[in-house]
Write a structure and sequence with these properties.
The protein is an alpha/beta fold and about 650 residues long. It is built from 21 helices and 31 strands. The longest helix has 17 residues, at about 115-130. Bound molecules: 5'-O-[(S)-butoxy(hydroxy)phosphoryl]adenosine.
Length: about 650
């Protein structure tokens, strides 16, 4: 056995018991599993009581028309009221909701719940004045500034579903999302701070608006622009409005309306197996119940004393559930940070932990591996003793990174919760409970109380302990996606057709000999790069939209830092000749322009042919072998097996950053 295999084995057999003091005081105890098992719906009703309902529900779950679920039927509530007003009414107005930290040093701001309420009310009045009504969609394209949270809550407050688009996405990506969900308003900023410099956002919005205008004239009625950096921006007086002109002048008084539990709260686009991103729809009641319950239970939040920090960007679902809705519903005090981890120095995150005495910290394995690479001496310069609980999300965490995180960041004492979930699930479904579970590095362990997860074989039968298969969820849960925006058929087909009666997550998993779950990663054409989901097909479409490209195939290859990395094989058109000296850069930039910088291939190989089966399907498995520099596997089903030899030779001369 190799050394590496041996060290993995020893990691796999390690276990970390909950600290005794946490075991005695944890919010969620072992009894919750039994309680949920004996009365699933009663358990969820109890979790729903965490929120303030204007009208109580008549029925916890209507599952008469699967897979279309209705939770808390007949209940009425307002998500923004639950996240803000009720805490102020309860006397917590002076409590800090966010310690906001800008990337430029000395640029920080504490926002109390009372201030947040005023800001949200002003923004709700302002967008109402722009003609936004209940049911209208609003796109939000902002950096990590307080206005991002304020804008989301203002939309929620008036019942206008928001769709937040990650600021790193391109104009093209923004316009396709605006068109798909029919957004009338875009809320953005002139720019933001990244790596010590002001970057621009507004030009991408202008470009997106022009694209939308060409397809659906008049759809976007206004663009509301926050001034963050003060840089010059082009201005379209017909639709552009400064946030400070409109919002700052608006009243802080706004009566919330209460909406049906199933009223749409937001749409979040995520990559699927086809070229077109899917608009995941979450609704008000069930989603907020899921976010609040899991944030309280899995992070063991003690709202009075904890300082919580989730490093995710607001443009991803993690930012929605665990930076905005969950923590605010629970009256948490959170940190929100605008910039990158290494500006102006590689200890920035730990400096923030020290300064605000962060006690609960939630980040992604890719960040943890980056810090490991930067070295232990960086976190060692800071006092991290306030930390009592660490979380991981977005991709499988390798045992080495888990142990480093626990030892170096958590001083060997803090539990680490490895939380599995998806944009679709709305909140965490599989995770250890910090006060209950003896956690194993690399395993998300067990479905949380209320959730029924399983690993099944091709026939949909539960596999025995010690075996692998597909991860499924057997029972509906409150924060589940309700459908794909405008596409019920694709919703049924994507998640509910593979194993009838079960939600198919798209992940492979194994149960170990104790029955604990190890999530292995996607089993479809979806890649996971630094915890971000990217579609192979979407990147292929971006590549073939370049005039020099005839054909493209994309695979996710294992990468030590980012989990997976995008590797592309490209056949050029005859008219393009050899593509010219800058062809690789040209194509990488083109992908960034079409989708966003996160989708840029790490590696592009210009090839003469692609390996295809006799039926014409690209054999991605073989391409992955080459990209990972493995011996190429079985090629007997290839139409022409000389292709692989050509590619393997090409791989040796490919360009990497
Ligand atoms: C996919 C969902 C959930 C918010 C961030 C990503 C992978 C997520 C884990 C984990 C192993 C994980 C899965 C999943 N994933 N968390 N703890 N262990 N894999 O959200 O973009 O919707 O991606 O991320 O493959 O299906 P997303």
């Amino acid at each position: 056995m190799s050394n590496e295999a041996l060290s993995n084995l020893s990691h796999e057999s390690r276990r970390f018991d909950p600290p005794a003091e946490l075991a005695a005081s944890a919010n969620l105890t072992a009894a919750a599993y039994a309680e949920a098992e004996s009365d699933q719906l009663g358990f969820w009703a109890k979790q729903a009581d965490r929120l303030t309902w204007e009208t109580r529900w008549d029925e916890v779950l209507d599952w008469s028309n699967p897979p279309f679920a209705k939770w808390f039927v007949g209940g009425k509530l307002n998500a923004a009221y639950n996240c803000v007003d009720r805490h102020v009414e309860a006397g917590a107005g002076d409590k800090v909701a966010f310690h906001w930290v800008g990337e430029p040093e000395d640029d920080s701001r504490d926002i109390t719940y009372a201030e947040l309420k005023d800001e949200v009310c002003k923004a709700a009045n302002a967008i109402t004045e722009l003609g936004i009504e209940k049911g209208d969609r609003v796109a939000i394209y902002l950096p990590m500034i307080p206005e991002a949270v304020i804008a989301m809550l203002a939309c929620a407050r008036i019942g206008a579903p928001h769709t937040v688009v990650f600021g790193g996405f391109s104009a093209e990506a923004l316009s396709s999302r605006v068109l798909d969900c029919g957004a009338k308003l875009i809320i953005t900023a002139d720019g933001g701070y990244r790596r010590g410099a002001a970057s621009a956002l507004k030009p991408a919005v202008d470009e997106a608006v022009a694209k939308v205008e060409a397809e659906q004239p008049g759809l976007v009625e206004n663009v509301l622009v926050v001034r963050r950096t003060g840089q010059d921006v082009a201005w379209n007086g017909d639709i552009d409005i400064w946030w400070h002109d409109l919002v700052e002048e608006s009243s802080t008084i706004h009566e919330p309306e209460f909406f049906d539990a199933e009223h749409p709260l937001y749409v979040m686009y995520t990559s699927g197996t086809t070229g077109k991103p899917k608009g995941i729809l979450h609704t008000t009641g069930g989603y907020l119940v899921g976010a609040a319950y899991t944030h309280w239970g899995i992070f063991d939040l003690k709202a009075e004393t904890d300082v919580y920090w989730c490093t995710a960007d607001i443009g991803w679902v993690t930012g929605h559930s665990y930076m905005v809705y969950g923590p605010l519903a629970n009256q948490a005090t959170s940190v929100m940070y605008e910039g990158v981890p290494d500006a102006p120095h590689k200890g920035r995150w730990w400096e923030i932990v020290e300064k605000y005495k962060v006690s609960i910290f939630y980040t992604a394995p890719t960040a943890i591996r980056t810090f490991m690479k930067w070295g232990d001496d960086i976190p060692a310069k800071f006092d991290l003793s306030s930390l009592r609980l660490l979380g991981s999300v977005g991709e499988p965490i390798n045992p080495e990174a888990y142990i480093w995180y626990r030892e170096t960041i958590g001083s060997g004492k803090t539990p680490v919760v490895d939380t599995w979930w998806q944009t679709e699930t709305g909140s965490i479904l599989i995770s250890p409970l910090p006060g209950v579970t003896s956690a194993k590095p690399g395993s998300a362990m067990k479905a949380i109380p209320g959730i029924v997860a399983d690993v099944v074989n091709d026939e949909g039968e539960s596999v025995p302990d010690g075996s692998g298969g597909y991860l499924v969820i057997r029972e509906p849960w409150p924060s589940m996606l309700r459908t794909l925006w405008g596409d019920d058929e694709r919703f049924k087909e994507t998640y509910w057709s593979r194993f009838p009666g079960m939600y198919f997550a798209g992940d492979g998993a194994k149960k170990d000999s104790d029955g604990d779950v190890w999530v292995l990663g996607r089993v479809d054409d979806v890649m996971n790069v630094s915890g971000h989901r990217l579609s192979t097909t979407e990147i292929e479409s971006a590549l073939v939209s370049h005039p020099k490209v005839a054909e493209a195939a994309v695979v996710g290859a294992t990468d030590e830092m980012t989990g997976q990395a995008v590797c592309a094989y490209v056949i050029l058109r005859d008219t393009a000749g050899d593509g010219g000296p800058d062809i690789v850069k040209e194509l990488r930039d083109h992908v960034a322009k079409e989708i966003g910088a996160i989708a840029k291939p790490r590696q592009i190989m210009i090839v003469a042919e692609l390996p295809k089966t006799r039926s014409g399907k690209i054999m991605r498995r073989l391409l992955r072998d080459v990209a990972e520099k493995r011996e190429v596997g079985d090629v007997t089903t290839l139409a022409d097996d000389s292709v692989m030899r050509l590619i393997a030779e090409g791989a040796a001369t490919s360009t990497e950053d």
